[in-house]
Each structure stands twice: as C-alpha cells, then as structure tokens.
Write a structure and sequence with these properties.
20 helices, 553 residues, single chain, alpha/beta
Length: 553
C-alpha cells in the first residue's frame, strides 16, 4: 500500500463543494463532516470546504467565523467579482477550513449564465423548478471562488483539485472547465436524479435498468434541468465518481459514462462515545424512549423488558423501505412467542406544526391529569390524512392496543436536540435502541445501518443499499447473530424480504443477554472495517486520476 501511495500524484490544494457543507440536510453532510478529520490531517493548510451561506439573519450553528483568515483574498474577491464569502472552521471533528458563499447576487445574471451553459454544455435550464436556481447559482459561485483563489494565490505550479458533490454543484465544475481547465475536477453523484425518481415512481429500476435511457426518462419524469446538469458534469469531469458499485451501474446506464472510481462512505470513530459515557447515554436514551412511549401508548413501560426497534432517514416511503419496516413489524406482531414487548419507532422527519402539547405537558409534569387522545405520533402533522406512514399504520388491525405484542410510535420530527419531545440529537437517541431496520429499495450507500453498527446496535438492511452490498461482499458471516443482516431484495420480492427480516428480528428477540452482548460487539466490528482511515485511499486514487489528466496533457 505504501508503494502505491508513493506513486500517486498528490494534490497540494483540495476544494470540495457541496450544498451540505455547514448545512445539515441529509446523508452528504455526514459523508463530508465525518471524513473531514482524516482528510484535514493529510492535507491541512490545503483543504477547503465550500458551502452556501444561508444564514443571513442568524449565525450558522455548524460554522465558526474567523475574520482574520484570508482577509486580502476575500477583499479582492468582493472587489473583482462582487462575491462575498465568510471564512472559518466547520464545527465537526478535525475543524477543517470552510468557505461559505453568498451566491444571491448572481440571480441578476441568471439568464445570462443559463444561456452560456446551454451554448457550452447543452445544460437545459428552461424546465427548471424548485431548488434548481439556488443550487445552480451556488455551484456557479463556488466555481468562481475556486478560480479566483487559484489566480490570486498564483497556484499555477501547484496540484489543485476541485471536488463537486451532486448535481447541485455541477455548475461549479463546468465553470472551471470553461474558465480554468488547469484545475483538476472530480464530480461525485451520490444518487442520480433520474434513478431516484424512477424508483420513487414505482418503476422496476433494477430489472429494467438496461432498457432505460437517461434523457428520455428525465423528460418523462420532469427532471430535464437537473438531469442535464448532472449529465454534463459527469461527461466533463476529469474524474467521475459515485459511492457504491450498485450506483456505478446506474451511472453508466443513465449518465452514459463509466465511473472512474467508487468512493464508499466511511465513518469516524470520534462520533462514538467512550465506554462509560456510552453507558450513561444509552441509559438516558432508553429512559427517554420509555417516558415518551408511556404517554403515547398510555401504559407503563418496563425498560428492561422492552425491545426498542427503529427505522430512520429521509421521508422516502418506498425507497427507504418504510413500508417494508411497518409490514415486518406487523408480521412480527402475529407471533405468539415473543418474550418481550416490542416498540417500533419510525424516526422520519415530515411536515409538522410542532410537538403535541398534551405530550409535552405530560413530559414536563407526569402527574398532570391530561387526556391523551392520539396514541401514535409525537408531533402534529399537517395533512395527516394524506400521510403514507399514518395511512399504512392505521390499516393495521388492533393498532397499539394494550394486548398487542408490537406497538408503533411515529416521530415525524428532525432529531437535532430541539424537537421539544426528546430533545436529543439523532446519535444520542440512536444509542438507546436495541435493533434498527433499514429495508431500502433505493439507497446508493446507506449511512443509517453503518451508524447503527458503529454504535453497537445490530442492524438489518438490504443488498439494494450500497452499504448492504459492501457488507455482503466483504463477509461470509451474516445474520442477526453476527450483528448485521443483509436481506436480498429485488424489484419483485417485497413480501419475501418482509418475511426474511421478520424471521431475523424474531431470532433477535430470543437472544439471551450474554448472546446479545456478543451480537452487539460483532455489529461494531463490522463498522470498524468502514472507518475513514480505511476508505480514504479511494479518495487519494480519485485525486490521482483527476490530476494525471492535467499533468499528462
């Protein structure tokens, strides 16, 4: 490995742009923030993360501003291009340098920018809607910032890499391709826009993949603009990457370019508390889960004789397998030999008005006599009659009745420590669960099962997730007794997956305390293989691929 690293061309400067830098939206935030420490240790002084400045009225909680750093360059950037940036550190492990860009002034030039990109790259902005403008103009501004930094600091003799994540930053890569092709570019699609949409629209993505045409499907699914940016970025990057082998196949078919390097998502052990702290966190989390469950289910919860099970992630009802989770728990409830009660939590942010006041008051004063009407949710949903999770749950006979072995609680709030009910962030609540289940249908990587394993929580996923496929290929010992279950999932075996997962969950429920301790340890052992210290080598190869195209020209 050392000989290989010595032969790789190393960057002197790395600029990595993403909509989720210092902006906690989803999984990409975890990818970048958890990787930051390892990357910063390797390239300290030459590593810069670039994100959007979305915090005009309040300070960003994930960013610490430093006014003394890069002062001359910032002044020149504003004077030369009219672009304002804030420079500081990202509040994550490693504390890497972050640059937050105010892209809003570019809205005045939007039509000119779009016209140029249509002429240069065939990017179709005519059908844009939703977040297209903000994302594209942020990406464009990121490209301007990198180009200006390069010229201001005279980096012509340095190896400079610009890494762009997802279609939202594609304009930045294309900007550099036109204005400063000396910068080596990497484009990573974490999930193709068309592939995700095909899956969401109940089309058989995997069995029919070879028959799908990206452009044609983009038109059918009204994704022309996003697809055209993603396609152009993939075609023009010096190094085209994605996060798993399963998504690499999707990219080759829909974006018509073979991936140069797969960049699997790792994890940073710094997120995991030490033994004593872990035990305290787990005890607190379990008690909090029990307290909330007692109020909602209107019965006493014996923490030591209750199995807490969870699924979590973005609200993608089919793609994330939320429907399969509910059906798995529904089938489990039909068992007559469960030794303990099971409470299944669905931790999926939805459109809510806020916390339920009756639950909140009862949490604040348990002795208060308050009538608890709803025995299902922790927060009040807008349009509950149209909510897929609620509708699915309410179709279950005898839902949450006291004699049922399995009960459900829907937590439709983002767990950032400020949800008013749990007031714990996701990791601090995750540590209290006994088992997690993520029956993904479309999941390019799958951080949630990896996070669970890292926190010593046994987990169930499928081989349609990048993580599940990686686990399956890297180990012959799978099954709940080994800490990680990977169910085989296809376009047409939904109920087979449900029954396979239910069987594994049932086995878990029957584990003795001694065996459970071993299973938890084995789950954690799987996560150790996915540490960033092991996976960072793939990034080094990507840097080499991108830089070699510049040096060899």
């Amino acid at each position: 490995m050392k000989e290989m690293e010595e032969k790789l061309i190393k960057p002197d400067y790395i600029f990595e742009a993403s909509w989720e830098v210092c902006n906690k939206v989803g999984g990409i935030y975890t990818v970048l923030s958890s990787r930051a420490k390892v990357l910063n240790a390797e390239f300290k002084g030459g590593l810069f993360f670039i994100g959007p400045n979305l915090w005009s009225e309040e300070s960003c909680p994930y960013f610490s501003k430093t006014t003394s750093v890069l002062k001359d360059w910032r002044r020149a950037l504003k004077q030369d291009l009219g672009i304002s940036v804030e420079v500081g550190t990202w509040a994550t492990h490693g504390h890497p340098c972050a640059i937050l860009v105010d892209y809003k002034p570019l809205f005045e030039k939007k039509n000119e920018i779009y016209a140029n990109f249509w002429e240069w790259y065939g990017v179709d902005s005519l059908h844009a809607y939703g977040d297209y403008d903000d994302s594209s103009l942020f990406g464009y501004a990121a490209g301007m910032v990198i180009d200006h930094f390069y010229r201001f600091h005279k980096l012509e003799k340095k190896n400079v890499v610009a890494h762009f994540n997802e279609w939202q930053t594609g304009f930045g890569e294309l900007y550099l391709k036109h204005y400063n092709p000396a910068v080596a570019t990497i484009f990573t699609t974490h999930a193709t826009a068309v592939g995700r949409s095909i899956a969401e629209h109940e089309k058989p993505l995997y069995s029919h993949l070879k028959g799908f045409n990206g452009k044609q499907m983009a038109e059918e699914l009204n994704l022309q603009s996003k697809f055209s940016v993603e396609y152009a970025a993939a075609q023009n990057a010096d190094c085209f990457t994605t996060v798993s082998d399963i998504t690499a196949q999707e990219c080759e078919q829909l974006l018509e370019r073979k991936v140069d390097q797969v960049l699997p998502n790792g994890f940073d052990n710094n997120f995991i508390p030490q033994t004593m702290h872990y035990r305290l966190m787990r005890r607190e989390a379990r008690q909090k889960l029990a307290d909330v469950a007692e109020i909602i289910l209107k019965r006493e919860i014996d923490v030591d004789n209750t199995i807490f099970v969870a699924t979590s992630g973005r609200y993608e009802y089919k793609n994330k397998g939320i429907n399969a989770f509910i059906d798995t728990m529904k089938v489990l409830n039909e068992r007559t030999d469960l030794p303990k009660k099971v409470i299944a939590f669905i931790l999926v942010p939805a459109y809510t008005m806020g916390p339920r006041q009756d639950v909140l008051q009862k949490l604040q004063d348990p002795y208060q006599k308050i009538q608890i009407e709803d025995s299902l949710t922790t927060h009040i949903l807008y349009y509950p009659d149209q909510d897929p999770v609620l509708n699915h749950l309410k179709s279950i006979p005898h839902l949450n009745e006291s004699d049922q072995q399995v009960n459900f609680i829907f937590v439709p709030s983002y767990l950032d420590g400020r949800d008013k009910i749990f007031n714990l962030n996701y990791y601090n609540l995750l540590v209290g669960f006994d088992l997690t289940i993520f029956p993904s249908y479309y999941e390019p990587w799958g951080y949630t099962p990896l996070e669970s394993a890292a926190f010593s929580i046994p987990t169930v996923t499928t081989d349609l997730s990048g993580f599940g496929l990686w686990v399956k290929e890297s180990s012959e010992q799978l099954g709940i007794e080994n800490g990680v279950v990977v169910a085989h999932r296809t376009d047409g075996n939904y109920w087979d997956v449900v029954h396979e997962m239910e069987e594994e969950v049932h086995k878990f429920c029957l584990l003795t305390p001694a065996k459970l301790k071993t299973v938890r340890k084995r789950a954690n052992n799987f996560s150790q293989k996915a540490l960033w210290t092991n996976f960072i080598e793939y990034y080094k190869k990507a840097y080499h691929i991108a830089l070699s195209k510049k040096i060899n020209k």
